[in-house]
Amino acid sequence: MKNSPPRAPAHLSNAAKTWWRRIVREYAVDDQAGCLLLQTALEAFDRMKGAQAQITTEGATVRDRFGQTKPHPLLTVERDARAQMLMALKQLNLDVEPEGDGP
């Protein structure tokens, strides 16, 4: 009897759950370590997307209490979450082949 694929953690966004299902299916991620890395990557994805949404609404700069223009504090959250996501995906060591015949 074949085991069913691991389910996406309930707290992930719908977009992250879609990525979970796709990666689990296409790369046969079913071990605990792989699932933990994938969960970490997708939690970072959700954090990055949340920061991006707020930055889009509020702008890339904000004014401090002295009226000086400063980079939005969530720019660092977005950057760090992107780095965490990419690092976790790299640790999954997915065999990614480009589609098509050419480079």
Quick summary of this structure?
The protein is mainly alpha-helical and about 100 residues long. It has three helices and two strands; from the N terminus they run H-H-E-E-H.
Architecture overview:
- The chain is mainly alpha-helical and 103 residues long.
- The chain has one domain.
- 57% of the residues lie in helices and 6% in strands.
- The chain has three helices and two strands; from the N terminus they run H-H-E-E-H.
- It has a two-stranded antiparallel ribbon.
- The longest helix is centred in the middle third of the chain and has 27 residues, at 32-58.
- The mean pLDDT is 91.
Mean pLDDT: 91
Distance N to C terminus: 41 Å
Count of DSSP helices?
A: 3
**What does the radius of gyration come to?**
18 Å
What percent strand?
5-15%
Please describe the biggest sheet, giving its number of strands, its sense, and whether it closes into a barrel: 2 strands, antiparallel
Order of helices and strands: HHEEH
Can you give the helix content as a percent range?
Answer: 55-70%
Strand order of the largest sheet: 1-2
Structural class: mainly alpha
Low-pLDDT stretches are none
